[in-house]
Structure formats: C-alpha cells, structure tokens
Amino acid sequence: MTSQLYRWRWLALAALLLAEAMNLFDSTVIPVASPVIRTDLAVSDTALQWLTAGYTLPFALLLITGGRLGDIFGRRRVFVAGVLTFVVCSVLCACAPTVAVLLTGRVLQGVSAALIIPQTFGLIRAMFTGTEVAKALGTIGPVMALSALCGPVAGGMLVDANLLGLGWRPVFLLNVPLGLAVLAVSPLIREDHSPTKPRLDVGGTLLASLGIGLLVLPLVEGNDSGWPVWTWLCMALGLAILVVFARHQRGRTSPLVEPSLFRGKVFPASLISSLLFFTVMNGLLFVLVLFLQLAQHKTPSDAALTLLPWSAGLAIGSWTAGAVLVPRFGPKVMRAGLGLVLVGLAGIAVSLTAIPLFVTGIGLGMFTVPFFGNALSGVAPHETGSASGLLNAVQQLGATIGVALLGTVFFRFGTLEAVIIAILLIVAVLALTIAMIPTRRPLRRSPDQKPRPANSKG
Questions:
Q1: What is the average pLDDT value for the chain, to the nearest integer?
Q2: Are 278 and 395 in contact (CB under 8 A)?
C-alpha cells in the first residue's frame, strides 16, 4: 500500500475503535435486557446467567488463537471476517424464538469477538509510526470507557421504548448499523501480517483453550453457586494444563505463543501488571455499579450517568498522555497515572462523588496509554499476533477475576463497607502493580525501520 493512503489512517482507526465499542456494548447490555428476556422467553436463572457467560467464555478461550490467525491470514482479513460474522450473529440473537437459539447466537458472537479484538494493536502499529502510535493507542481507553458506561444506558432506553413492540430485541439489532459502518470503512485499514507465515498450532490451541476455560468457568459460576469444591478443582486443573501448554510450546516451529516474547523483561512484566491492573479496575467498577443500584436504589441508567465523570476523566487523561506526556516522559507517565488513581480512590472511600471519580479516570487514562505501547515496544512483527492475543486474554482473565473477587466482597459485607474494603484491596494490588511496571522507554523509529526483537538490549 502506498504512503498516500496513510491520509486515511485516522478514519481507519475510527473503524477499529467502533468495532471494539460494539463488542463491549454487547457484553454489557445483557444485564439491562435480562428481566425482559426472562419473561419473554421463560428463561431459567441458570440459563439467564449463561447468556452472559456464553459470550465471555468463548471470547476468553479463543483470544490467543484469534491473534495467531491474524498472523497467518492477515489481520485486516481476519478482522473483517470477525465483524461480518458478529453482525450475522447479532441478527440471529435478535430473531431468536427460543433461549437455545439466543444462547447459540451469544456463543458465536463471543467467537467472532475473539477474531476482532486481537487484531487492533497490530493494525494500529501497521498504520501509525513514531509519536502517533501513542496518540492512536490513547484513543482506546476513552472509547472503551464510554462504551462500558453508555452501553447500559442505551440498552435501557431501547428496552423501555419497546420499539415496534420488539421488547429486548433492538439491543442486538443496534449492532447491525454499527457493524455495517465498520465494514464500509474497512478497505481503508492497512493490511498487516507476519513476515513469515506460521502454521496454526492445533495441539497448543486445544491445551490453551482447555486451560483458560477451566480457569474462567469457575470464576463465572463461582459467586452464584457458592464456590463449591468443584470450582477450586477446576481452577487447579486449569493451571496445571496451562503449565503443560507452556512446556508444549518449547521447541515448536510454529507455536501458538512465541517463546521469544519471554526472553526479555518488558513483555512478561507487562502481562503480570495487566492481570493485576484489570483485576482491580474491573472489579471496582462492578462494585460501584452494584453499590449505586442495590444500596442507593438507582436505576441502571442513573447509575451509569453517575459514573460518567470516570469516563470524562479517562478521556482527558488518555488524550493528555498520548499527545503531551508520553512523547516527553515515556513510561514514567504510568507511575504518575497510578498515583492519581490512588488519590481518586481515597476520595471515593470518603464520598462517591464526581471529583474523585474524575481524578480516578484521569489516572487510568495516563496509565493505559503508555502501558500498551510500552508492552509492545520490543515485539517483532512475527510476534505481534501472539503478543496481542495474550495481552487481551490476560485482560479478560483479570476482568473476570476482579468481578468474582470484589463481587464476593460486596455480597459478603454489603453497601459502603464493601466499597471501602474493595478500595483497600485495590491499594494493595496497585502497590504491586507499580513495582512491576517495566521501565523501557518507547522506541523511536523512522517509518521504514523495523522493530527490534524482544530480546534486544537498550
């Protein structure tokens, strides 16, 4: 592709962000629509829970594989295939006559999302160079935050409006125009793939999927079932299988996860930091939403509006970090961001008002922008699919752990006490996260210069 087409890179980025927002919206809208779905389709409590888990579980299982498929077939091609499938499955969900058909559509949506999301980082790196990479990555945070908060509000409005007497079905039909808009702009996205075409590691895919599945499934079911013995056995077995998976990857010509990613210090430290950070922040957001609805008796829409200062701060922090701070100070901005998060959390513990939520959001934006750029700074082109899939899988696992862990704290203690206990846990985990932040400065490359290998010095 000629350099002239780079003038469309920001519009292409908008398509990538819209696809990510569509995925997040779909994962957050089900709780709002659940009561109406339950009545309309005579859904049991267990089946209702699986309408959410049926999406998140295949999504978590196939993220690493989705990233590898981008290496093999081209990241734009896999991205477009995922978006097209997601749109078709959304129509299937909207037209579902029974809960079995709806659950099937949700599972296929999760599979489609696993094809879409891991391609984003690689495609951004293919279209942007220099300081623009940080600016482009900086747009992800505010878009995701606004999607997470506006999704339930929009879903609630659609359900309440009962358009054409369709009840809950329009919440899925909303994906159709969004997906078609992404597909219309997708030719402007620059294709990107691994310079050497790997083969798909089928054995590694099965082991990784089984190990991650045995970890995630108990986290999804644990709170509702009271954490029986089988949940702990599943998690122990999942960890054991992931150890077998790690040994299986050694010495393979086309591994699912490139072993070279772990030869340096930056990427492994980033994985640990990502797991801790997203465990904390997703768990906190879940507890705050529960507190607003169950203790302060706010509607889902009102609860989302209460948390809008969080999103506003995230948008401002992300833009400032990408445009001003990261080009000048590099990864040090991450520590400053986490410092602001701690200040904001202290304020939330005193009073759940707009100012501490706003400060927390700014800190989150300042952390996330340099974090992803720094994590991928030493990743070579042939490692991008593995690295992106693994980062996203760790995020998903962290989010699931956070909701399970801090949700348990909330239901054990209730109301404001749970928020304070959650914040104390978050302060402890953030202290560990600060200690694990990698300190590599972002690489400054010319547009035609290739990234250094992960084990390069400097």
A1: 80
A2: yes
